[in-house]
Here is the input.
Amino acid sequence: MKPITILLAEDSPEDVELIREAFDYHRFSADLHAVRDGVEALAFLRREGEYADAPTPDLLLLDLNMPRKDGRETLAEVKADPALHTLPVVILTTSTAESDIVESYTRQASAFLTKPVDFDAFLELIRQLGEFWLTAVRYPTRAG
Amino acid sequence: MRGELESGPLLTALLDSGVVAVALFDADGTIRDANERGRRLLDLAVDEEAGLRPPPWQVAPADPDLGTEGAFPVAAVATTGAPLRNVRLTLVWPEGGIRYIAVDAARVEDAEGTRRVLFSLRDATERILAEQALRQREAELAEAQEIAGLGNWVSDFTTDTLRWSDQVYRIFGLTRAEWPGTREAFMASVHPEDHDRVQAAVDAALAGAAYDVEHRILRPSGEVRHVHQRGRVDFDTQGRPTRMVGTVLDVTEPREAARALEQSRAALERQNSELRRLAEVAAHHLQEPVRRATVYAQRLARDGSAADWPHLHDQLARMNRLVADLQRYLAYQTREPERSPVALDAVIAAARDRLRDEGHGDLTLTLEPDPLPTVEADPAQLTEALHQLLDNAVRYRRPDRPLQVHLAVRWRDGRWELELSDNGQGVEPDYRDRVFRLFERLQPDDGGGTGVGLALVRRIVENHGGEVTIAPRQPESGTLVRLSLPAAPADTRRDHPR
Here is the structure.
């Protein structure tokens, strides 16, 4: 079976590193790509510029607070784009704000996850995320 | 040839009939004779032996308001022979009675050549009292208009003239002498930017709509006032406009009060949304480094991997910066600026010194004009803002060329405009508004900015009642930040003294 391709939009290199570590820890076989903000994420998804040869992600893991274009705007653009709107988007953020949760679901996010402060809890969250999104879920067939 | 009317018997009948009142004066001013009606009008008694008694009244002194003279014009007419018409006199009785009369006078000569003056007399009391009442009403109306600030006008299309009440002249800052009273002259007083709107309102009124328009006018002094005009057009039976009448109210003060209110409402709304954002920040931006530091600390405790130490340190340092910047920002959130005359040279020098102390001195700074003028502002706050802008210029410089910063200051439209431009990376048009939001950054976590700097600059400028904008990026030209600071709040002078 072809491994799942995941695009991670996250401005903090530390958090990217921690998520990669957690994936390795659980031995998830996923093709994980990281970009640093919403502008890069949309370019990646649309294969623009330096991302002309980028693979087509099956899942977008999206941080909310990022420079230039934040997760809220990125989510809205993805869902408004007929070529992208079936892409499942999971919000992965430090935020616990009710307004962020409501806004994310209103804009058709598939799930809203808060990064736990505790590292073990963080590992556990990634395990659940991986088991659900990497093994249980069926994705629409996507071009590319 | 004399007509029948002018023959003796008819004239006698006319004098006796009581239709006309006449009196004959000697050239020295004594009343020689009067007919029955004349005697009644002049309150003259006849003594059987001595004839006419002297009049019981005196002629009051001349009064230009009433248009009265101070004496019967006997001498003038007796000397020149030129008749006089409609001379007004006030007769005053010692016990307080008053009577206004109007007289016509002509010189007559008897058979011996003695010159006398013949007066035809009319009671003018009602007319003069009516005129007086009318003048008083007009004065009261003018007074009421002045108190209310409301003027009225009449535009007569048949004569193509425009008549203003005194209050309209006061509102427009004009005198009757310098204003020709035409519609063109009125339009010349309308603020150029409102010209089309006023013309459209006039056109609509000529088409039958109510005239109701608020616009600005320019006084000859250059002062701008806001006026509210209401009026209507009258039409003749053929539907042609005959005249337009209306009122002008000076609404400058309420408009300015409303604008000030709107400004403080907007400022409050902004503060509220920033406070909400601050609350979110506690959840997001402060939590992020805390969460990561916790993770690294846990891993250190578990694995003792030396590689986690610098990560832990970085996160704590970032936390430290965030808290410090947030504190700096909050300090200006509600602080009223303490204004005083500030030499901009000193402020920019202080900002630059601070930057140098922080190890960022390597930039070329040019000033325009040099030396810079003095403005009214809070010196500490302005220094903080300029320091922040210079800090941004250094932080977002282009690595391939030496950093040049230019500060241009000019007085424009009642405000000081400070333009700080550099040859750095610039800000793309999409982000021109975002950059002023708190904790907004345009670059990924680079260990540098926390996204407080420009929000702080905006806070300070708005504390001064000003505005800050970033000009769109021109290719290769870097960033241009424009601060516009009003003169002292109550100062509405057009030209600032140097």
Observations:
- The two ends of chain B are 87 Å apart (CA to CA).
- Residues 489-498 of chain B have pLDDT under 50 and may be disordered.
- The interface with chain A takes residues 280, 283-285, 287-288, 290-292, 294-295, 298-299, 311, 314-315, 431, 439-445 of chain B (CB under 8 Å).
- The longest strand of chain B covers residues 98-109.
